[in-house]
Structures are given as structure tokens and as C-alpha cells.
Specification:
With about 425 residues, the chain is of the alpha/beta class. It folds into two domains: about 180 residues, Alpha-Beta Complex (Aspartate Aminotransferase, domain 1), CATH 3.90.1150; about 250 residues, Type I PLP-dependent aspartate aminotransferase-like (Major domain) (Aspartate Aminotransferase, domain 2), CATH 3.40.640. Helix content is about 35%, strand content about 15%. It has 14 helices and 17 strands. The strands form four sheets. Strands 4-13-12-11-10-5-9-7 form an eight-stranded mixed beta sheet, sandwiched between helices. A four-stranded mixed beta sheet has the order 1-2-3-16. The two termini are about 15 Å apart. The site of pyridoxal-5'-phosphate (PLP) has 15 residues, from helix 4. The site of pyridoxal-5'-phosphate has 15 residues, from helix 4.
Length: about 425
Amino acid sequence: MRVLQKDQLMDFSRSGQHFESASKVIPGGVNSPARAFGAVGGSPLIINRGEGAYLYDIDGNRLIDYVGSWGPHILGHRHPAVIQAIELALSRGTSFGAPTELETELARLVVEIVPGVEKVRMVNSGTEATMSAVRLARGHTRRDTIVKFAGCYHGHVDSLLVQAGSGALTHGMPSSPGVPEGCTADTIVLEFNDIDQLEALFTKQGNEIACVILEPVVGNMGVVAPLDGFLNTARRLCTEHGALLIFDEVMTGFRLALGGAQERFGVTPDLTTMGKILGGGMPVGAYGGKAEVMDSISPTGPVYQAGTLSGNPIAMACGIATLTTLRETNPYPQLGAMTSKLTSGLREMATEAGLPHSIAQVGSMFTLFFNPDFVTNMAVSARNDTERFGRYFRGMLDRGIYLPCSQFEANFVSCAHSEEDINATLTAAGEVLSQLD
Ligand SMILES: *Cc1c(COP(=O)(O)O)cnc(C)c1O
């Protein structure tokens, strides 16, 4: 076993200093709490630039990036086709508040690619997409009750900021101050993968339910795949009871297959929310679905939704270049193979080190859980050894491997990761895992 000497480890002192200044003018020093190193200790790296599979921080360290801006960078940082498209769009102006050809082009791509989408509306983030999709589902069905699953994250939408006591079928208690109980009173939270619970709910009050919203493969409690029959049951129950099924594919869209989880699992939702890869690194979200449902949005229908910067031309150009490149290159088999190589190595090393663990992988998304049980829902994920994860995270960071700074996140492999990057990651993991107890 090779033990790294302290002077071989990385120096993050400039990041640390900058973070202190940032914290004086930005709450917690970050513009999104997921970036703070709250769960792992220490302060976040301040990034100077990205290139391919690498991030470079302001101390000049090069890190192999498994965060990919939390999902968007499936092509890696600064893919030439993407940068070129942004530069061309930029030469024409940044925003017009009037339709452009680019919006139609990206919409057409989404309609061609995503099985459940006949029409699509662009917004500026995943949060906006889910907020609008839920409003549309309620307005279209003229029902108020919505169903979500514990551990599924759908952005910081008031009515969706609810978790549940494990296994409990609860009327939602808001999980943040500032969300009035009234906002979550019509949100029912179930346990992911629990088919019986879902059946029981629909038997009791199926005709009150506007929609069921879920991440078809969950990324936000660590990676959790749907068990056989779960997605199909949700599909059947929604159809039988006149409720809309919403797949939140903000993370899985264009990642698990070109057409997302719905293509991969062959289950078609009524509405799909998208983001992350759709914008290729620019702030874009979207929601789409059956034309008949989508036409309930203003100006064709009565459900109001708008956005000054929605369909922004630079963001559209970035999205078009990203989706076009993915369609032309079909990287999915290769991405899956590279990710499998990484997860098999991790499994071997964690086993050898005698660490209780389980690994979940779907395509290029994976999580190494410090949990002896296979994670199927939030109740199981709640038992992860987050303290041990924190030490793993720091050990990897010290060796130039940039992982998501929480046990409850998905790791992403991109098209820019090479065999050498995977091997270097496994070498680092071997050292770190063998030293954990
Ligand atoms: C990231 C994410 C969101 C929120 O998207 P933002 O762009 O951060 O608002 C919603 N749903 C899922 C599944 C996500 O992964």
C-alpha cells in the first residue's frame, strides 16, 4: 500500500481564503447550498476554469470532475461544438424578449428525442420546470392533490419541499421555514418503490389526485433505481384515475439514454420536466408533454406561466449544440461501460477494505453508498454512514478527485473522461478506502 505524504497532497489555501471573503457578501459563501461543504467539512474549492473532464481551482490544482456542474456537462467542459455555438449566438445579441428560430429548433429537437413530449415550453431552471408542470397538472385536471416520493428532489418549489417520515403516508409537513403549511397541505408523500402504498392511495382517493411526480431514477438521495413494476404501476394508476404522471427528468433526461429514463425503461409519462443537460451548462429548464395538456398553458389555455428570459438565445444555442452532439455521437453505450469499469473497481476495493457498502449505477450515474443494504428508498438511504463518506470525500479531494460533496448525490461520468482518468480515480480510491475504518 502506497501512503501519500502530506506534501504530495493538494494545497487549497487560496480557495479557503477566498471563501472567507465570499461568506461576507453571499449567505454561506455560496449561491446554492449543495455547493457548500456542510456535509463533509472544510470549505468549497473556488473554481477558475474547466476543460474536458477536469476542473482547475484558483490554487492551480487540476481535479478529475465527477460533478459536471451537478449533471449538465455530459460532454465535459468546453466541448468545442458547444463553445462555437455560444460564440455565434453571442455575436447576434443576448436577449430580445421576442421569438427566435433557436427556440423552435431546440423545441423540435426535444420533441423528436423525448418519447412523451409533443410540445414543450422553455423556462430557466429545473425548479421553474417542476413548479410549472405541477401548476399545469392541477389546472388541467382541476384537482389539487399532488403525490411525491420521499427523497425525490424537484427543486425548491414550495409545494414540493416536503419529505416524509420513513414509510409513512403523511400529509406533507413543510421541510423549510417560510413554506406555509397551506402550501404543502395538498402534497402527499409516499416511499419510493412502494407499489402497495401507491395502490392503496389510489384506491382511497385516486379521483382527487392531479398528478404523481417522481424522478424515474432518483439522483437526489444518492442513485436509486426503480424496482421492477414501480414505474409501470404509477403509469397504470394515473391512467385509470385520470391523474397525470410527471417524470422529473431534470437529471436523467438526455443522460440515461438520449430520450432519458422514459426511453430506457419504456414508460411514457404525461408530462416531463427537463433541465441540466438540456441547457448544456446554461440556465435552461423545460416542461413538455401531450399537446392536449400543454395547450392548457397561456396563451392558448388558462394556466398562467411566463418568463422574461425564457428561451434565451445563448442558452438555446448551447442546448441545441449539446443535444445535437449527443444525437450524432450516441455516447451512451461507452459512457455506461466506462462507469461500470469504475463501479466494479470501487466495489472490489471497498470489499477488500472490509467496508460495508452498496453501489448503485444506472448508465453514467452512480453512488457508492456507505451502507451495507441495497438502497431502494429514503428510509434505507437515511442509514448511510455520512461520517465515513465525509472522510472518503476528503481523501479523494486531496488526491485530485472531485466528487459530489454529499453522500446523497449522484456521481456523473462524462464523455471527456478517459481510461487514464478512470484508472487514476481507482488508484486514489484504493488508497483512501484502504485507510478508512
Ligand atoms: C437539479 C434538479 C432539479 C432542480 O433544478 P434546478 O435547475 O436546480 O432548479 C429538479 N429536479 C431534479 C430531479 C433535479 O435533479
